[in-house]
Predict the 3D structure of the following.
Amino acid sequence: MTALSAVETEATAGGASLSVRDLWKVYGPHPRRHLEKVTSGGAPSDGDHTVAVRDVSFDVRPGETFVVMGLSGSGKSTLVRCLNRLLEPTAGVVEIDGTDVVSMSPSQLNEMRRSQWAMVFQHFGLLPHRRVLHNVAYGLEISGVPRSIREETAREMIELVGLKGVEHKYPHELSGGMRQRVGLARALAVRPRLMLLDEPFSALDPLIRSDLQDELLRLAGVVRQSSIFITHDLAEALKVGDRIAIMRDGAFVQVGTPEDIVLRPADDYVRRFAVEAPRAKVVRAGTIARTVVTLSGSETPEAGLARLADAGGGAAVVRAENGRTLGVVTELQLLRARNEGLGMEDLLNGGFATVTEDATLSAVMDKLVATGNPVTVHSRSGQLLGLVDHSTAVHALTTSQP
């Protein structure tokens, strides 16, 4: 068994669960006193105090990547540092795996930071006098793991992030993208149940940044820890997040899946972000598939038109007696067949394509262009869910849903 397959075999099925309730962070000389004024209707800032996190509540499921996205000054970096008490919350509850983080002693916090939680910052924070191998092994070293075990684990993590062969280089000998991979490997070496990533790729060039986003997605499928990912870039949030929280002035404006944010923005603030989103890469076929009308291959075009009219027009799936899909037909094709005296079978010579419900709109559009016909959408188990035609695809690209 290779080092990489060993890591994959040992990966746990899920990361930590996180529950945050009514979290506040106030900066200033008397934060609790100021919080009482704010919750009683007072102004959030009085010159001496600033509310950085305002009454935030959310949950993160085991193995989920939860993205907090907002502009500079929105409070997102303060929030993530409150979760592991690098900053002390002014009020609220933070529970990780059911344990109250706010009530932990300093020694308990240090132990959890070493063994269960990991953090990756925008600036790599590597030790310049240590080679890559010993940078990656550092967290295990301070936890007292024997040298042979920690170095074996470090080598596994270095291979996992695609850096095999650079174990004995120093950080200054690496590119920015490689240094950030070392940072990821160091965080993963302790096999954390929770990863906190604060704008980890924002200092990198766009191409390197895209590569590392892909790498993070791959690692999420292998290691399967829970992650809180901070970013100011909506495209990045949509790419890496299972769910996204949009933050403004210390509070959450909307929490939802990437599709929720793009198709159903909660207000004009979110809508201004969503209008720039790469919808074709976010919207899923299962979300936009139209309810399907199923016709029999033995039906006449006239009967097919009547059934389509009752369903509001569009297109239908034609199936054989044994349930096999024979093709798709549009209302215009049925009209032509009726007028020219053709049978249903005469309409099924053209190709048609099918996708699963998880396929992106971009993949659906490729198949629409290739076949010229609507695309059938199936569930993961193979059940027919509906159709996506050209008008449905265009509507999804340009219109928010209520």
Q: What stands out?
A: The longest strand covers residues 50-60. The longest helix spans residues 206-223. The radius of gyration is 26 Å. Residues 161 and 219 are 8 Å apart (CA to CA).
